[in-house]
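note to self — DONT lose this again. spent like an hour looking for the file last time. sequence + predicted structure for the chain T wanted, 208 res
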Amino acid sequence: IRIKETNNKRYKSLDFHYEINGKKYRVYPKFSKSTQKAYFAFYNKPNGINTDGGGETLTHYVAKTALLNLSQLHLVNNRKNIDLYISINKNKSCNEKRFDFEDTFYADVYYELDERQEYYYKWYGKLVLEVEVTHKVDSNKRLTFEKNNVPIFEVKISEKMKNEFGLETPGAKITESRIKTAIEKMTKIFEKNIYGDFISNPSSEEYK
């Protein structure tokens, strides 16, 4: 955003994309004066996308992109004694997976699980991660996924992490290089632990 103000030629050379089910859509960075937050917005919004009041924050984009880089998940919630290692099929995972239930929903990160583990049978071979940056998953989405046997682990991005990355700081210098570095750094953090909680945790009949 600052580049646009100081070097418009350089700004026009930048190219950002938002990937949905393997298809890339061009996006551009925006800054909201009312919320004092930066986020990505679509040039041409895909059909069925319902943005969360003003678009996607940069922290949210970086987090879900980093999560998709993983081949194994270590899900942790010390308070609830959650300490799970989940192996996934990276080639069949994606961001913004579409689910057509009573309503249409998109999952932040969708994984197909490696079948050589018990969770494959418990969760029907799939797992969704939702990233909480500014707000939690709404109750309609949570209950609909539970009803349709889709597990959701809601990943909490702490205030400490948000401040450390500083992507939403007013006046922050946001460049393509900085976003790439942030994704790499957050990937390394998530490789160790992913903190959050299950908000949908169904069990298949055969697992019971």
